[in-house]
Design a protein that fits this description.
Length: about 240
Amino acid sequence: MINPSNPVPLHIQLRKSIEKKIKQGLFKEKIPSERELMETYEVSRSTVREAISQLVIDGILEKKHGKGTFISKHPIHYWAGNFISTTEIIEQMQKTPSTKLIRHGIEIIPDELKKEIELDNAYLIKRVRYANEVPLAIETQYYPVHVGLQLANLDISHGTLYDLMENELSIPLHEADEKITSQKIGPEDAELLNLPADCYTLHLERFVYDVHGDLVEYCIADYNPELYAFHFKSARAGK
């Protein structure tokens, strides 16, 4: 349920609760009305509308005028601008997620990254992410050492790291700053993704911050461009 004392904004808590019930099959074709959600969760209409709006943007829900808000039958791959985990993305693709841990431990930050994350040492976790047992992405994630050491005591081989941080370590994640480019992949990572050597991938850099504005993760991810797509939606700014 919603916890008003939790530093995570109410609409984010509500959004996650609705999404969880959809995955559990508690909401099937459509979700309850705004009034029902307000009464169930004891939140304002604006909180409900913000949560629903984000789920629509994520491609999880779709509004039908005069009929209500329905669960989407055709979820998209990934709506850029929305902060969700790779596990959630793969589930939205209606595929089964799995993970292979490549390596983890404390490492010295390469000189080219020190300016980006302002750390001399970090805890690195490198994993391959699979969709229906097909390699989809390689994620190399850097954490402040104290966060990484706590994560290492948990199930980083299979667990969703964002869920572990929020639910097990009580780190309230808030927002992410992301950049997407095309980049040539190295031979080791190409082999992990079953791609030809020196091919190009969809390359993502993500800075994740908690509600206090502190950096809690820097993620470098390479996605197989034949299996994955980023989906943008934008509106022309008023003049």
